[in-house]
Design a protein that fits this description.
Blueprint lengths: L7 E6 L1 H4 L11 H13 L3 E6 L2 H5 L11 H20 L6 E6 L1 H5 L1 H16 L3 E6 L13 H11 L4 E6 L20 E2 L4 H4 L14 H12 L4 E6 L3 H8 L6 E3 L8 H8 L5 E5 L3 H7 L9 E6 L6 E6 L4 E6 L4 H9 L4 H10 L8 E3 L4
Parallel strand pairs: 1-2, 1-5, 2-4, 3-4, 5-7, 6-8, 9-11
Antiparallel strand pairs: 7-8, 9-10, 11-12, 12-13
Helix pairs in contact: 2-10, 7-9
Subcellular location: Cytoplasm
GO molecular function, one term: glutamate 5-kinase activity
Family: Belongs to the glutamate 5-kinase family.
Length: 368
């Protein structure tokens, strides 16, 4: 692995590898992954494992596994999580630790820092963190939704050098290889743009929730943080042997030469907007002069219910997304102030209490 020179990696394993037939966990495909993790650790490379599969692992314990309500899926996750952890644990002769997360744990800055510290402490003590979304308690409002994107957020939180996403095909193809015999593997991607996303089809696995699109989304998150990202075939041992030899077995996404600052990356790719401010079309002039000059009379709408400290989106009235930022005012107060922005006393109040959003807590969004 000398060519890659990694010190810490995150590997993401999906449900189809954990419980291929929804009949409980199987070590059939996991043995080569476990061996890869062992060999990485023997080379001094720290490993974080993001493992899907709790719902698929627990499905066989329930009578009806098709078209089940969300409450049953949560119960499946609760039952399957212990089986999944036990399956991984028996493949290693070193300790592992279960870390269950929701998006709420990652989008809140204090909790995000706590997650970073926990992962770092586990690794420094030689313990393998095994991370999964907490499907038992999460809701639509709190969930990441797929472990591809979760793995990219974890890679950023773990300060990883590389993210390895296991798929059921060799990597990103120019068209769906399951449908087109002439599909060509894209071995190298220097920039993720609309043309790359256009190559992504839907999910091909009956047990997983992530398709190729979510893997590209994860690659975009990770590479913008300076993290080497690979999509590989997790069903074949050859993929892992090639990585150990410093070779690319699938699709390698090149990391940014100048990664985003850590707080900007967190704001852009991890923190979730709880509401939005719609501003006048000429807000770009304010943006160029400094966002702290944003005034209540430039706000056209205040949407959503957010509190001080929540992340919000600022967009133009034509829909163009401009920045994500930490709100210095609640949605209730901002709605009141924008309705009365013609009164000088309210403008004086805002001048005394501070800007609506601050330069130090924002991320400027690129138009795509």
């Amino acid at each position: 692995m000398s060519e890659f020179n990694w010190k810490r990696i995150v590997i993401k394993v999906g449900s189809a590898l954990i419980a291929p037939n929804k009949s409980g966990c199987s070590s059939h495909y996991l043995l080569s992954i476990a061996q890869f993790i062992v060999r990485c650790r023997s080379k001094g490379i720290e490993v974080v494992l993001v493992s899907s599969g709790s719902v698929a692992a627990g499905a066989h314990l329930f009578d009806d596994i098709d078209n089940v309500p969300i409450a049953t899926k949560k119960a499946m996750a609760a039952a399957g999580q212990t089986e999944m952890m036990a399956t991984w644990d028996k493949l290693f002769d070193f300790p592992s630790a279960q870390v269950l997360l929701t998006h709420a744990d990652l989008r809140n800055r204090d909790r995000y820092v706590s997650v970073k510290e926990t992962i770092a402490t586990l690794l420094s003590n030689g313990i393998l963190p095994i991370i999964n979304e907490n499907d038992t308690v999460t809701t639509d409002k709190l969930k990441v939704g797929d472990n591809d994107n979760l793995s990219a957020m974890v890679a950023a939180a773990a300060d990883a050098n590389a993210l390895i996403i296991c798929s059921d095909i060799d990597g990103l193809y120019d068209k769906n290889p399951h449908l087109h015999e002439d599909a060509k593997l894209i071995s190298w991607v220097s920039k993720i743009d609309a043309s790359i996303y256009s190559m992504a089809g839907g999910a091909t696995s009956s047990v997983g929730t992530g398709g190729m699109r979510t893997k590209i989304e994860a690659a975009e998150k990770a590479t913008s943080n300076g993290i080497d990202t690979f999509i590989i075939n997790g069903f074949t041992e050859l993929s892992f042997n090639m990585l150990l030899q410093g070779k690319n077995p699938g699709t390698h996404f090149q990391p940014f030469e100048q990664p985003m600052q850590e707080n900007v990356h967190w704001m852009t790719h991890t923190s979730k907007a709880q509401g939005e401010l719609v501003v006048e079309g000429d807000f770009n002039e304010t943006l160029n002069e400094g966002v702290e000059g944003l005034t209540a009379d430039e706000i056209v709408e205040v949407n959503g219910d957010f509190a001080v400290g929540d992340t919000i989106l600022v967009r133009r009235d034509d829909g163009t997304k401009l920045v994500k930022a930490e709100a210095n005012y609640s949605s209730c107060l901002l709605s009141f102030l924008t309705r009365h922005s013609e009164h000088s006393r309210y403008n004086e109040y805002m001048q005394k209490t501070g800007p609506i959003i601050s330069e130090k807590n924002l991320a400027v969004l690129e138009e795509k």
